[in-house]
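Hello forum,

I keep getting stuck at the same step: I have a sequence, I want structure tokens, and every attempt I make locally crashes halfway through. Rather than fight my setup again tonight, could one of you with a working pipeline run this one for me? It's a single chain of 709 residues.
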Amino acid sequence: MSANLMDLWRPTMQDAINIAMDGVETSSESPTTVTVQETVTATVRTPSDATSPAAEIGDDEIDVDDYEDGPVSTGELPKVPKAAATKRLADALMVQFGHPEGAARAIARAVTRPEDARKRVQLPVEERVPGGTVLTISSWVWSPAVSTFPDNMREAVRRKYPFALVDEGSGDHTPLPPVHSDTGATTELTLAAARREAVVASLNNSATFLKNHNNYDDSVRTHGVLREVLVVPVRFEHKDGSRPQWILAAADGSSRTATTHRVLNITPSDVVYGYNDDDHAFRTLLGRVAGAAALPLEELSEQQRQQLRSLVMPAKIIVGFRPDPGSTKTLAEAVRFIVGITHVEPPTQWDTASKLDAQAEAVLEDLFHRGRISEEAAGYFAGLMSPSEAEQRLYSRYADARAAAIVSTLLAPKNRRVCSAAIRRVTARARIHVRDIVPVAAELALRGWPGRADPSATRVDGVRSALQRMLLSSDIARCDWSPTGRTPDVLLAAALGEINAQETGGPAAVELGMLGGWYLVVSGFMQRELRDSPSKTALNKVFDTLIRSEHGLRLLADALARGRRGERPRAINEDGVPVDLHHYAESVGLDPQRPYFANHGEDDWLRRTFMVEPRPEPEKPLDEEQTVPPETQLEGAKGAVGLVVSRLEDALRAVTFIEGYARPRLIDEVGWRTEEAESLAGRLEEAARTLHRYGWLFEETREVSEPTD
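Reply #2:
Ran it on my machine without issues. Output:
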């Protein structure tokens, strides 16, 4: 007797609870009983949703000749489809949606049941996104035909960008450029890589990162992939002249996809190029793995069982994008919105760098499409040029100058609206302020810092936090300055001239502060305020003090000159003479041998030397000496209520942006716990009654105060 696949895939109720508690993917789908005939089969379940298009497809619509091994019945493992069946699906995609042949083939060869998919493409699911509609179909796909996403933001935290590579060699760490797509109705994403080797190296790095940081091995080996992955055709173009290559890639679900590849012992190179170029090898792999299902259950090894579970995945396939009339939105933007609304906002969280990188890619894309920056500048800001390549294209080779160019561009008043719209597109936040653009600018700047890919998250987070706080300086945010390319000595002379002319915080001082401050921050010399800091003053205020004093400007110029030579910043006195920090520590009663001084000694010196005392709180007048009229206080309190109500509306709106599994909105699927919802509603109703009462009192007082004839 051949193996019943329910024996391979039989999660208990306790398994389901454990999966949910561990944060592993779960599914609302119920496994159906699977029968196995004496033919090649693979592990698969059919959705139980009776309203799905698949439920409307009768047996009379299944073409027996589409399969190598005879008829297919519902719930049975799919056979390897014939090449003719795959071609008919590809032809249908080209006719229905205008797919290029390569994109249509990428979808068709991945689908396990082409005849089912041919019916579904006649009535695709329409999913609204800002500025357009994404068209999708649901189907089971062969996991060896699906690649991880080449522009996966989850791994952004460990990417090494060419600009940050000290030896100026790309090595295996060079990330691929962002995917993009043509304007208008389109069916595929495009990625321009230097050569095939660059694609393979980047995808290998991605697979390693996902294995180490988002590993689904236990879940997939035990249960298979339970939730749909979101896949889209991607065209790889190669600048070395190699022919383009199309592959179906998991825009959401790369971690699960990478896990299936590990279980099947296949590599990214196999998926993107090997099996894509050799269909016979691809079909041989499917037959070899699926053929094990014909063996008796007791003869199956654990590895064979795990591979059977990993051979197929449920997928939502993007088959097209239709922009709204007059909209300039693209498929790439739509994909980023769908993925961003899942990971940048709840329920599934990416780490800080990944969320900011998703926003950064959207910002660069919008700035380019709006004509605010060139395509070359977008690549420079994205960190995709090495220092020597940047210099050849007339950009600065220095990370500090690149950071200044990014900050001055993103925070420029004329670009803030564009940046705000881009960030809203991937976060669904209702309002974006300048302080929300600052972290995105900081993250792009940090792509030029080699330490960004440091495995010590604490160190990187500290630098990220400090840089964000420095950029919150009002002098920087006003953008009354711009990078001029002047040398440290020339900048220092200009900044000192501003001080002599009583112009504090002038453009030269701010530029010098931005450039020199970069090295103070990334070296850890200047840190965010700590509990043990001698001054709890915010870092942006410390920065403001540095650029307003001659001593501070000299420190910044010295840090800039040393940083460009690859040397660490140093403490100097007002005459530019180096300060002995051990002697300083003893003079202020610190032990230079203790961990505090080893980790924060330079920042301690900086804060004590340029101490910014917090402004003392003014004494509150007695009630009878109240200086603020009660009417003014009341207006302020009413304004605060209005602000809170606006935030409440934004929060409720954000609830509706979270995508569900069976319905467009997750909240419509799961609802809100009754006691919580009723408690909140009761409080809101009480607040509403109070406001109605105040409104009634206003009308009453008006009637009383109005004169009568």
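Residues 348-455 form one domain. If your local run keeps crashing, start a new thread with the error log.
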